[in-house]
Design a protein that fits this description.
Length: about 220
């Protein structure tokens, strides 16, 4: 039996302001740090061979807090743009309630939770500097549906996480709401329609136990 644990970062400053975040690189609130420590507390005794996170600091800081609390700072960590949150395009930085008033509840729900809906696009991609400067410019999105994010997330999971699980080594992913929704969809084989109802809370470890062919033996995911 091998375990995969996925944790959404603790509350970010943008979460606290009810803003769309996506690839905006915001930090954790005090409450977010508390949630990261709480996640570690839930994972006492869990040992993992590798940590996977995004290049966004809210996830990286959460991962470091968990590693530190579990005294597993030495475990290798990979930071990859492929595990970044879904890119929210021109919605990023906007208040979610204000967009509900402007565009209606239904449109906002589609942007936030449907598999194929693409949020309004940026006129131009951001410059690919900072964490993205060694990647070819075409990786920079102007907006992503969950499907768009899924297409870049799942290949990373297959090549860098599933192979290690198949080798019997526990893995920890510390990432984002939509990144983890995409992975839940892939791992559980959830339909394009039903992924709409899947939510991921900040700092609550999602634990899967697999057999040696990566069939799910158990999971603590609460289903509606
Ligand atoms: O703003 C975001 O990037 C995400 C996660 O916080 O929000 P939503 O729940 O709307 O996908």
């Amino acid at each position: 039996m091998v375990k995969l644990v996925m944790v959404r970062h603790g509350e970010s400053t943008a979460n606290a302001l009810n803003q769309y975040t996506g690839w905006n690189n915001v930090g954790l609130t005090t409450e977010g740090r508390v949630q990261a420590h709480y996640a570690a507390k839930q994972l006492q005794g869990f040992e993992f061979e590798h940590v996977h996170t995004s290049v966004l600091k809210r996830a990286i800081i959460t991962a470091y807090i968990i590693q530190d609390d579990l005294k597993l700072n030495y475990v290798p960590i990979t930071k990859t743009w492929r595990l970044n949150e879904r890119h929210y395009g021109a919605l990023r930085g906007q208040n979610k309630d204000e967009t509900r008033r402007e565009f209606g509840e239904q449109q906002v729900h589609l942007w936030r939770r449907s598999f194929y809906s693409v949020p309004p696009k940026l006129a131009h991609p951001d410059p690919n500097d900072g964490p993205y400067k060694y990647f070819e410019p075409r990786i920079m999105p102007v907006a992503e549906s969950l499907f768009g994010a899924y297409k870049r997330i799942v290949p990373y999971y297959v090549d860098h996480v599933a192979n290690r699980l198949l080798d019997g080594k526990n893995q920890l992913i510390v990432a984002h709401g939509s990144t983890i929704r995409a992975l839940i969809k892939y791992i559980e084989g959830i339909s394009d329609q039903d992924i709409d109802g899947v939510e991921v809370a900040n700092g609550m470890p999602l634990i899967y136990e697999f057999d040696d062919r990566l069939n799910i033996i158990s999971s603590n995911r609460q289903k509606k």
